[in-house]
Amino acid sequence: MKLLVLFLVFLISCSTTPERKNVKLKLRVLHTNDHHGHYLPDRDGQYGMAARKTLIDKLRTEIVSDKKGAHLLLSGGDINTGTMESDIFDAEPDFLGMKFIGYDAMAVGNHEFDNSYEVILKQKKWASFPFLSANIFWKKNKKRVFEPAYLVKNFHGVKVGIFGLTTVDTPFKASHDDAKKKFEFRSIIKSAKEIVGVLKKKEKVDLIIAVTHVGHHGSATSNGDIDLAQKVDGIDVIVGGHSQEIINAQEHNGTLIVQAEDWGKYVGVLDLYVNQSHQRVDFEYELKPVNLKKKTPKGKVYVDRKILEDATLKSFFSTYAFKAEKIGQKVVGEITHTLDGSRSKVRSQQMAIGQFMGESLRHQVSGVDGVVLNGGSMRASLNAGKVSRKDLHNVHPYGNTIAVVKLSSEEFFKYLKNVSKFAIVDPQNIIGGYPHFVNMKLYFKDKKLYKVTAYDGSWKIENKGNKIASTKKEFTLGTMNFLAKGGDNYPKLTGNKRYVDTGFMINSAMMNYVEHFKKVKVKPLREKTSNIINGL
Known about the structure:
Shape: globular
Structural class: alpha/beta
Oligomer: single chain
CATH topology of the largest domain: Purple Acid Phosphatase, chain A, domain 2
């Protein structure tokens, strides 16, 4: 028995690493990002802010039970744009929900600029916590738009500085003209170096956290989190967003980078151990799922234990959900003829409803050469006559967002060649992956793709003797994030450095399309479907 006791004592002593013996502070950094209007759980009961509140309360209680413990709650931005239930209220329930949960600060995301600056000011009042972005300036007076430029918090004598950054691509992604007309989005590297210098020299902080909305890899025109870590010394942690990925505490140049995918599916939990010399000596990281489920032979089951929804927040949100249902009946425009969304048809042939959805995408995001969507994403018909928000939501009742990627002519042709195999239909086995091609004509010989042209003939790609001849060097492909991630066995695009998930919902794009044209003419959409696939 004595030997057993001694062995247990030895195990306990070994469970604490040497770095943690003289810890002065254990700082728990909780984080989410790319919320995109998902304050309510989905139809499977996944995520939702009421359950998030319960989980965060538990995580806070755990850390403060430690005398050396403290906590922060940060958001990587893009609270706006995503669901009808949020968009119609300018994300009021979302920001009030964040205030109730107790967020300390958030990065300003590009989709915050889908609204006018007046709406952003309203959202700041609802939130009552700082919106952080050190690289956004007024064009007129060259002053920072969001003040304060940083926060300094003191935890058990350890000073922590927090600042934010926003992708410089914002003017080209935002829906509202204010982003282009009023604001200047400066280099995130130069802005970060300036703020880190101020935090180190003036504020004398011990730790620096950057909460960012720039993406893990950034884009062709904007630096990302990896660049930020490698080019700016002195940042201890980057709490990221924008690329909507799971980043499990990657370390670059001594900087930890974390990101928690999107929609509040997870709460990221980063525990930082700080010693008596006020230096980070160790860390732990975990992503906590918020009522996420996985498929099993017996049906969908929780990935982890079910989290009960906070009763107060659940009741508060139900009022907005009820109002949203009524507003969803609002007519946004009309269509001249019925758009057939029958399951058997959209999964076996080019349909006008696929053209409608694809043209909505092209109308929302300029510069897209061609669009590929899958028939399985089209879930209902649109009847001729008046069209409501709810009607459009029923056509595509998912949270899929518009994704775009720039490809070389060879990459573009190869992608279409790989996808076009799903267009060879077995009448006995129709599939959700059946591709709908928009603004393109495809030509086949012996069931092999050999040529693709723009529908109006403005560009062409052709396989000549296993060499690609093209009238353009680069093409911009539009699709949805589900397919870009490899859904329905489509080629994966998310690894491409020039891939961008715009965060803009496809059903919202359809609504904007109908509102813009007021009366959508279906005949031209129908006529296109007979000329898209040639030779199969």
